Amino acid sequence: MEEQDVRNIRVSEVMHEDWPTLSPDDTIETAIGLFAERRIPGAPVVEDGAVAGIVTEGDLILQDANIRTPGFLEILGGVVPFGDWGEYKEETIKSAGVAVGQVMTAETVSIPPEAALSEAATAMVRERKKILPVEDQGRLVGVVTRMDILKLHLKSPGS
After folding, report:
1. Can you give the pLDDT at residue 80?
2. What confidence tens digit (pLDDT) does each residue in 43-82 have?
3. Res 2 pLDDT > 70
4. Which of 23, 85, 140, 157 is the most buried (most CB within 10 A)?
5. Number of domains in the chain
6. What DSSP string runs through 51-71?
7. Domain that holds residue 22
8. Does 1 map to a domain?
9. Which CATH number goes with the domain that contains 50?
10. How many CB atoms lie within 10 A of CB 12?
């Protein structure tokens, strides 16, 4: 096999087409069981074939985290939070959720199958993601992970 620069390999050549998915209505317990059984860090949340979000171990660990509430200043019967009220509200909702749709990250970063792996790696680093949904015309067609990219370096040393 001819040595190839891994940065020029297409996402479609290494993506997992059979990666498990979750529904927004699945329970947190279902997600945890799936992650443990399949030894995966996360899964796309799919609704009608399209990516509705992604749920990862990080999203689920919030169930066990202590959420630090912001300080408050009470003035004339009103409450003024110190810090970012929106962030606190979002984290509180995530920590109380019982369905995947309540804890998933709805704003996902995805990549098309024809993209180069260098584009996928750049998106993963920039967005701090371990897993990227691969979408074609608004439909989930696979998933690419950091490990998929790293494993290619073992096959093509010096790339």
Report:
1. 60
2. 999 999 999 999 998 888 755 544 454 555 556 656 566 6
3. no
4. 140
5. 1
6. EEEEEEHHHHHTTTSPPPPPP
7. 6-155
8. no
9. 3.10.580.10
10. 16
